[in-house]
Amino acid sequence: MANLRKMLAWVFCASMLAVAPPAAAGGKKIGKFYIVGMGSSPDLVTLRGQQVARRADLFVLESQFDRQAWKDYIGKKPVLFAPHLARLFLGIDPNTLTDPEQKTLAEKNDALRKDLVNRIHKAVTEGKTVAFLQWGDPMMYGNVYLLELLPPEVPTEVIPGVGAFQAGSAALKRSPVYGYDTSSVILTMSDWPGRSDTNDKLMATGTSMVFYTMHLDYPALFAQLQRAYPADTPVAVVSFAGDSKNQAIARSTVGKFLQEVDWAKLPPEMHTLFVGKFITAGQGRKDGVFHGKESIEKNHGDDLPPATGEYHSQPK
Protein backbone atom coordinates (compact mmCIF):
# COMPACT_ATOMS: atom_id res chain seq x y z
CA MET A 1 0.00 0.00 0.00
CA ALA A 2 2.88 2.35 0.81
CA ASN A 3 4.39 1.73 -2.59
CA LEU A 4 1.03 2.49 -4.20
CA ARG A 5 0.84 5.81 -2.34
CA LYS A 6 4.36 6.70 -3.51
CA MET A 7 3.50 5.83 -7.09
CA LEU A 8 0.30 7.92 -7.03
CA ALA A 9 2.17 10.84 -5.51
CA TRP A 10 4.82 10.59 -8.23
CA VAL A 11 2.16 10.53 -10.96
CA PHE A 12 0.44 13.60 -9.48
CA CYS A 13 3.69 15.55 -9.19
CA ALA A 14 4.71 14.58 -12.71
CA SER A 15 1.36 15.73 -14.09
CA MET A 16 1.71 19.08 -12.31
CA LEU A 17 5.25 19.56 -13.63
CA ALA A 18 4.07 18.74 -17.14
CA VAL A 19 1.74 21.74 -17.17
CA ALA A 20 3.74 24.10 -15.01
CA PRO A 21 4.81 27.25 -16.90
CA PRO A 22 8.52 27.17 -17.75
CA ALA A 23 10.90 29.93 -16.71
CA ALA A 24 13.87 31.40 -18.51
CA ALA A 25 17.35 31.53 -17.00
CA GLY A 26 16.75 35.08 -15.74
CA GLY A 27 13.58 34.05 -13.94
CA LYS A 28 11.27 35.60 -16.51
CA LYS A 29 8.15 33.53 -17.10
CA ILE A 30 7.93 31.93 -20.55
CA GLY A 31 4.51 31.47 -22.06
CA LYS A 32 3.31 28.47 -23.99
CA PHE A 33 0.75 27.59 -26.65
CA TYR A 34 -1.36 24.51 -25.99
CA ILE A 35 -3.82 22.62 -28.10
CA VAL A 36 -6.10 20.86 -25.64
CA GLY A 37 -8.34 17.92 -26.46
CA MET A 38 -11.43 18.46 -24.31
CA GLY A 39 -12.99 15.05 -24.93
CA SER A 40 -16.11 14.03 -26.83
CA SER A 41 -18.18 15.08 -23.79
CA PRO A 42 -17.41 17.81 -21.23
CA ASP A 43 -16.90 15.27 -18.44
CA LEU A 44 -14.31 13.32 -20.44
CA VAL A 45 -11.63 16.01 -20.35
CA THR A 46 -8.36 14.72 -18.88
CA LEU A 47 -6.79 15.95 -15.66
CA ARG A 48 -3.96 17.59 -17.59
CA GLY A 49 -6.44 19.23 -19.95
CA GLN A 50 -8.33 20.67 -16.97
CA GLN A 51 -5.14 22.02 -15.43
CA VAL A 52 -4.12 23.83 -18.61
CA ALA A 53 -7.61 25.20 -19.27
CA ARG A 54 -7.92 26.54 -15.72
CA ARG A 55 -4.70 28.52 -15.80
CA ALA A 56 -4.86 29.74 -19.40
CA ASP A 57 -4.64 33.50 -19.90
CA LEU A 58 -5.96 33.52 -23.46
CA PHE A 59 -8.21 31.04 -25.28
CA VAL A 60 -8.56 30.08 -28.92
CA LEU A 61 -11.89 28.57 -29.95
CA GLU A 62 -13.58 27.47 -33.17
CA SER A 63 -17.07 28.80 -32.44
CA GLN A 64 -19.30 30.69 -30.01
CA PHE A 65 -20.85 27.35 -29.06
CA ASP A 66 -17.49 26.29 -27.64
CA ARG A 67 -17.38 29.42 -25.51
CA GLN A 68 -20.65 28.40 -23.89
CA ALA A 69 -19.60 24.75 -23.49
CA TRP A 70 -16.38 25.67 -21.64
CA LYS A 71 -17.57 28.83 -19.89
CA ASP A 72 -16.48 27.50 -16.51
CA TYR A 73 -12.87 27.53 -17.68
CA ILE A 74 -13.02 30.69 -19.80
CA GLY A 75 -15.02 33.02 -17.60
CA LYS A 76 -14.26 36.60 -18.67
CA LYS A 77 -10.81 35.86 -20.10
CA PRO A 78 -10.06 37.00 -23.66
CA VAL A 79 -10.88 34.71 -26.58
CA LEU A 80 -9.60 34.49 -30.16
CA PHE A 81 -11.59 32.64 -32.79
CA ALA A 82 -10.15 30.27 -35.39
CA PRO A 83 -13.32 29.37 -37.33
CA HIS A 84 -13.61 26.13 -39.26
CA LEU A 85 -13.65 28.01 -42.58
CA ALA A 86 -10.20 29.43 -41.79
CA ARG A 87 -8.79 26.10 -42.99
CA LEU A 88 -9.89 26.75 -46.57
CA PHE A 89 -6.93 27.11 -48.93
CA LEU A 90 -4.43 26.32 -46.18
CA GLY A 91 -1.16 25.42 -47.88
CA ILE A 92 -2.15 27.01 -51.20
CA ASP A 93 -0.60 30.26 -52.44
CA PRO A 94 -3.48 32.62 -53.27
CA ASN A 95 -1.50 33.91 -56.24
CA THR A 96 -1.74 30.50 -57.90
CA LEU A 97 -5.56 30.65 -58.00
CA THR A 98 -7.22 31.91 -61.18
CA ASP A 99 -10.80 31.98 -59.93
CA PRO A 100 -11.37 35.52 -58.51
CA GLU A 101 -13.78 34.34 -55.82
CA GLN A 102 -11.46 31.59 -54.64
CA LYS A 103 -8.47 33.93 -54.66
CA THR A 104 -10.33 36.52 -52.57
CA LEU A 105 -11.32 33.88 -49.99
CA ALA A 106 -7.80 32.45 -49.95
CA GLU A 107 -6.31 35.90 -49.31
CA LYS A 108 -8.86 36.58 -46.56
CA ASN A 109 -8.11 33.30 -44.77
CA ASP A 110 -4.37 33.72 -45.22
CA ALA A 111 -4.60 37.11 -43.50
CA LEU A 112 -6.81 35.67 -40.74
CA ARG A 113 -4.38 32.86 -40.01
CA LYS A 114 -1.40 35.23 -39.96
CA ASP A 115 -3.24 37.52 -37.55
CA LEU A 116 -3.98 34.59 -35.24
CA VAL A 117 -0.35 33.49 -35.31
CA ASN A 118 0.88 37.02 -34.54
CA ARG A 119 -1.53 37.39 -31.60
CA ILE A 120 -0.61 34.00 -30.15
CA HIS A 121 3.11 34.66 -30.63
CA LYS A 122 2.82 38.02 -28.87
CA ALA A 123 0.92 36.52 -25.93
CA VAL A 124 3.42 33.69 -25.46
CA THR A 125 6.31 36.18 -25.67
CA GLU A 126 4.65 38.14 -22.86
CA GLY A 127 4.67 35.02 -20.71
CA LYS A 128 1.03 34.06 -21.17
CA THR A 129 -0.48 30.61 -21.48
CA VAL A 130 -2.61 30.28 -24.61
CA ALA A 131 -5.00 27.32 -24.89
CA PHE A 132 -6.76 26.27 -28.09
CA LEU A 133 -9.62 24.12 -26.78
CA GLN A 134 -11.03 21.51 -29.17
CA TRP A 135 -13.62 18.76 -28.90
CA GLY A 136 -12.48 15.14 -28.79
CA ASP A 137 -8.88 14.42 -29.68
CA PRO A 138 -7.36 17.24 -31.77
CA MET A 139 -4.98 14.79 -33.45
CA MET A 140 -7.90 13.10 -35.21
CA TYR A 141 -9.20 15.53 -37.86
CA GLY A 142 -8.72 18.43 -35.46
CA ASN A 143 -7.16 21.82 -36.19
CA VAL A 144 -3.42 21.74 -35.55
CA TYR A 145 -2.27 24.05 -38.33
CA LEU A 146 -1.37 26.83 -35.87
CA LEU A 147 1.39 24.56 -34.56
CA GLU A 148 2.80 24.47 -38.08
CA LEU A 149 2.54 28.23 -38.64
CA LEU A 150 4.02 29.46 -35.35
CA PRO A 151 7.77 30.19 -35.30
CA PRO A 152 9.73 27.13 -34.14
CA GLU A 153 11.05 28.91 -31.05
CA VAL A 154 7.53 29.26 -29.60
CA PRO A 155 6.96 26.64 -26.86
CA THR A 156 4.02 24.42 -27.78
CA GLU A 157 2.32 21.27 -26.50
CA VAL A 158 -0.64 19.10 -27.45
CA ILE A 159 -2.78 17.66 -24.66
CA PRO A 160 -4.54 14.60 -26.14
CA GLY A 161 -8.21 14.00 -25.50
CA VAL A 162 -10.75 11.20 -25.49
CA GLY A 163 -12.07 11.35 -29.05
CA ALA A 164 -15.02 9.88 -30.91
CA PHE A 165 -13.02 6.78 -31.86
CA GLN A 166 -12.16 5.93 -28.26
CA ALA A 167 -15.55 6.89 -26.84
CA GLY A 168 -17.43 5.14 -29.65
CA SER A 169 -15.42 1.95 -29.22
CA ALA A 170 -16.13 2.09 -25.49
CA ALA A 171 -19.85 2.49 -26.21
CA LEU A 172 -19.76 -0.66 -28.36
CA LYS A 173 -17.70 -2.44 -25.67
CA ARG A 174 -15.48 -3.83 -28.42
CA SER A 175 -11.95 -3.03 -29.57
CA PRO A 176 -11.83 -2.44 -33.35
CA VAL A 177 -8.30 -3.85 -33.68
CA TYR A 178 -9.68 -7.33 -32.96
CA GLY A 179 -11.46 -8.83 -35.96
CA TYR A 180 -10.96 -12.59 -35.56
CA ASP A 181 -8.66 -12.85 -38.59
CA THR A 182 -7.60 -9.16 -38.77
CA SER A 183 -5.53 -7.02 -36.38
CA SER A 184 -5.92 -3.47 -37.61
CA VAL A 185 -8.41 -0.66 -37.93
CA ILE A 186 -8.54 2.07 -40.56
CA LEU A 187 -9.75 5.51 -39.50
CA THR A 188 -11.01 7.52 -42.45
CA MET A 189 -13.59 9.98 -43.76
CA SER A 190 -15.45 10.70 -47.01
CA ASP A 191 -13.53 10.84 -50.27
CA TRP A 192 -12.64 14.20 -51.82
CA PRO A 193 -11.28 15.26 -55.24
CA GLY A 194 -7.60 14.44 -55.58
CA ARG A 195 -7.45 12.00 -52.67
CA SER A 196 -5.08 9.13 -53.45
CA ASP A 197 -6.00 6.71 -50.63
CA THR A 198 -9.66 6.48 -51.59
CA ASN A 199 -12.02 4.44 -49.45
CA ASP A 200 -12.50 1.73 -52.05
CA LYS A 201 -8.73 1.07 -51.92
CA LEU A 202 -8.82 0.95 -48.11
CA MET A 203 -11.81 -1.40 -48.13
CA ALA A 204 -9.83 -3.90 -50.20
CA THR A 205 -7.97 -4.90 -47.03
CA GLY A 206 -11.19 -6.26 -45.51
CA THR A 207 -10.20 -5.01 -42.07
CA SER A 208 -12.16 -2.98 -39.51
CA MET A 209 -13.01 0.58 -40.58
CA VAL A 210 -14.14 3.65 -38.67
CA PHE A 211 -15.61 6.59 -40.55
CA TYR A 212 -15.63 10.14 -39.29
CA THR A 213 -18.85 11.26 -40.91
CA MET A 214 -18.24 14.86 -42.05
CA HIS A 215 -19.85 15.27 -45.51
CA LEU A 216 -20.44 11.51 -45.69
CA ASP A 217 -22.63 10.31 -48.58
CA TYR A 218 -24.20 7.21 -47.05
CA PRO A 219 -25.72 5.67 -50.22
CA ALA A 220 -22.44 6.08 -52.12
CA LEU A 221 -20.38 4.74 -49.22
CA PHE A 222 -22.53 1.65 -48.72
CA ALA A 223 -22.45 0.94 -52.43
CA GLN A 224 -18.68 0.71 -52.00
CA LEU A 225 -18.92 -1.34 -48.80
CA GLN A 226 -21.29 -3.83 -50.42
CA ARG A 227 -18.74 -4.47 -53.16
CA ALA A 228 -15.93 -5.07 -50.65
CA TYR A 229 -17.54 -6.72 -47.60
CA PRO A 230 -19.97 -9.61 -47.12
CA ALA A 231 -23.56 -8.44 -46.68
CA ASP A 232 -23.69 -9.77 -43.11
CA THR A 233 -20.66 -7.73 -41.97
CA PRO A 234 -21.70 -5.93 -38.75
CA VAL A 235 -22.13 -2.15 -38.78
CA ALA A 236 -22.81 0.28 -35.92
CA VAL A 237 -23.35 4.02 -35.66
CA VAL A 238 -22.55 5.69 -32.34
CA SER A 239 -24.12 9.13 -31.89
CA PHE A 240 -22.88 11.56 -29.22
CA ALA A 241 -20.19 9.12 -28.16
CA GLY A 242 -19.29 9.42 -24.50
CA ASP A 243 -22.25 11.65 -23.64
CA SER A 244 -23.97 9.83 -20.77
CA LYS A 245 -27.33 11.48 -21.53
CA ASN A 246 -27.49 11.48 -25.33
CA GLN A 247 -25.29 8.60 -26.51
CA ALA A 248 -27.15 6.23 -28.84
CA ILE A 249 -26.17 3.17 -30.88
CA ALA A 250 -27.78 1.94 -34.10
CA ARG A 251 -26.73 -1.55 -35.24
CA SER A 252 -27.15 -3.22 -38.62
CA THR A 253 -25.14 -4.88 -41.39
CA VAL A 254 -23.49 -3.77 -44.60
CA GLY A 255 -26.35 -5.26 -46.60
CA LYS A 256 -29.26 -3.84 -44.58
CA PHE A 257 -27.99 -0.55 -43.13
CA LEU A 258 -29.64 1.81 -45.62
CA GLN A 259 -33.01 0.13 -45.04
CA GLU A 260 -32.77 -0.39 -41.26
CA VAL A 261 -31.16 2.87 -40.13
CA ASP A 262 -32.65 6.34 -40.67
CA TRP A 263 -29.23 7.62 -41.71
CA ALA A 264 -30.55 10.95 -43.06
CA LYS A 265 -31.59 11.96 -39.53
CA LEU A 266 -28.33 11.10 -37.78
CA PRO A 267 -26.90 14.17 -35.96
CA PRO A 268 -24.47 15.93 -38.35
CA GLU A 269 -20.81 15.56 -37.36
CA MET A 270 -21.90 14.06 -34.03
CA HIS A 271 -21.87 10.38 -34.99
CA THR A 272 -19.25 7.84 -36.01
CA LEU A 273 -19.65 4.81 -38.25
CA PHE A 274 -17.99 1.49 -37.31
CA VAL A 275 -17.68 -1.40 -39.77
CA GLY A 276 -16.20 -4.83 -39.18
CA LYS A 277 -16.33 -8.30 -37.69
CA PHE A 278 -14.96 -6.99 -34.40
CA ILE A 279 -18.45 -5.76 -33.46
CA THR A 280 -19.64 -9.33 -32.98
CA ALA A 281 -16.43 -11.39 -32.95
CA GLY A 282 -15.00 -9.73 -29.86
CA GLN A 283 -11.39 -10.34 -28.84
CA GLY A 284 -11.23 -13.96 -29.95
CA ARG A 285 -8.55 -14.52 -32.59
CA LYS A 286 -8.40 -17.17 -35.31
CA ASP A 287 -5.20 -18.71 -33.91
CA GLY A 288 -6.29 -18.39 -30.28
CA VAL A 289 -3.31 -16.02 -29.80
CA PHE A 290 -1.11 -19.14 -29.55
CA HIS A 291 1.32 -17.51 -31.98
CA GLY A 292 2.13 -14.95 -29.26
CA LYS A 293 2.59 -17.46 -26.43
CA GLU A 294 6.39 -17.16 -26.19
CA SER A 295 6.30 -13.37 -26.24
CA ILE A 296 3.60 -13.27 -23.56
CA GLU A 297 5.57 -15.64 -21.33
CA LYS A 298 8.77 -13.67 -21.84
CA ASN A 299 7.27 -10.28 -21.02
CA HIS A 300 4.57 -11.17 -18.51
CA GLY A 301 5.24 -14.61 -17.11
CA ASP A 302 2.07 -16.31 -15.98
CA ASP A 303 0.84 -13.13 -14.18
CA LEU A 304 -0.19 -15.16 -11.11
CA PRO A 305 1.25 -14.89 -7.60
CA PRO A 306 3.90 -17.62 -7.19
CA ALA A 307 2.93 -20.86 -5.46
CA THR A 308 -0.44 -19.65 -4.11
CA GLY A 309 -2.47 -20.12 -7.28
CA GLU A 310 -4.69 -17.29 -6.05
CA TYR A 311 -5.99 -14.73 -8.52
CA HIS A 312 -6.14 -11.89 -6.01
CA SER A 313 -3.29 -10.95 -3.72
CA GLN A 314 -4.20 -10.08 -0.15
CA PRO A 315 -3.05 -6.75 1.37
CA LYS A 316 -0.53 -7.08 4.16
Describe the structure in your own words.
This protein has twelve helices and ten strands. The strands form two sheets. The chain has a five-stranded parallel β-sheet with strand order 3-2-4-1-5, with helices on both faces. It folds into two domains: 15-162, Cobalt-precorrin-4 Transmethylase, domain 1, CATH 3.40.1010.10; 165-281, Tetrapyrrole methylase, C-terminal domain (Methyltransferase, Cobalt-precorrin-4 Transmethylase, Domain 2, 2-Layer Sandwich). It has helices at residues 2-19, 47-55, 64-69, 71-74, 100-125, 145-149, 164-172, 199-203, 218-228, 257-260, 278-281, 293-300, and strands spanning 32-37, 58-61, 79-81, 129-134, 156-159, 185-188, 208-212, 234-239, 248-253, 271-275. It is α/β, with parallel strands linked by helices and 316 residues long. The model has no long low-confidence stretch (mean pLDDT 89).
In the CATH hierarchy, the third-tier topology of the largest domain is known as Cobalt-precorrin-4 Transmethylase, domain 1
What is the CA-based Rg, rounded?
Answer: 24 Å
- Give me the CATH architecture of the largest domain, please: 3-Layer(aba) Sandwich
**Portion in beta strands:** 15-25%
Strand order of the largest sheet: 3-2-4-1-5
Number of strands: 10
In short:
By secondary structure, the protein is an alpha/beta fold. It has helices spanning 2-19, 47-55, 64-69, 71-74, 100-125, 145-149, 164-172, 199-203, 218-228, 257-260, 278-281, 293-300; strands at residues 32-37, 58-61, 79-81, 129-134, 156-159, 185-188, 208-212, 234-239, 248-253, 271-275.
